[in-house]
Specification:
Layout lengths: L3 H7 L3 E5 L3 H12 L3 E6 L10 H5 L3 E5 L5 H6 L7 E4 L4 H14 L4 E5 L3 H8 L4 E3 L1 H13 L2
Parallel strand pairs: 1-2, 1-4, 2-3, 4-5, 5-6
Length: 148
């Protein structure tokens, strides 16, 4: 007999990504390769051309046209099924708003937000949202390389 915790562990993790730019498409592809089911939300349908066609056709990645700052569009993108929400649009304010909605309105347990403004990043880190700054990561790598 399989316990409920074993069934949950065997269930395929579902991730909702807001933003299908180069970063969002790369994250979606990598997560599918690791066994996740991905829904990806973007306002511009042409951005979905960045996704591997085979992953879209087989249903591993489900593109959804919409705005991640609107509750109706988040529902359309199956946010209620998500185990993880990742906001990686090109705008900090949109990412922050969508991340807060995912955490507080939809109660997604793992919320990750791209945040280039380092001051805002620190603030959101303290609010239960994992804020990631590409600027900080690149700066740290460059400083490390310069010290060699």
């Amino acid at each position: 007999m399989i316990s409920n915790s074993d069934q949950a562990a065997q269930r395929r993790k579902t991730v909702l990504i807001m933003g299908c730019g180069r970063l969002g498409a790369l994250i979606a592809t990598s997560l599918v390769e690791q066994g996740c089911k991905v829904h990806i939300l973007d306002r511009a349908s042409e951005t979905f051309g960045r996704l591997p066609e085979i992953m879209v056709q087989e249903g591993s990645i489900e593109p959804v046209i919409g705005d991640g700052t609107h509750q109706a569009d988040l529902r359309k993108a199956s946010i209620r099924d998500a185990d993880v929400f990742i906001a990686v649009s090109g705008r900090d304010t949109q990412n922050a708003l969508a991340a807060q909605m995912a955490l507080h309105v939809f109660e997604i347990p793992n919320v990750i937000c791209r945040m280039n403004d380092l001051t805002r990043k620190e603030m959101y880190d303290g609010l239960g949202i994992t804020a990631v700054s590409g600027i900080r990561l690149v700066a740290d790598m460059m400083i490390s390389a310069a010290r060699r």
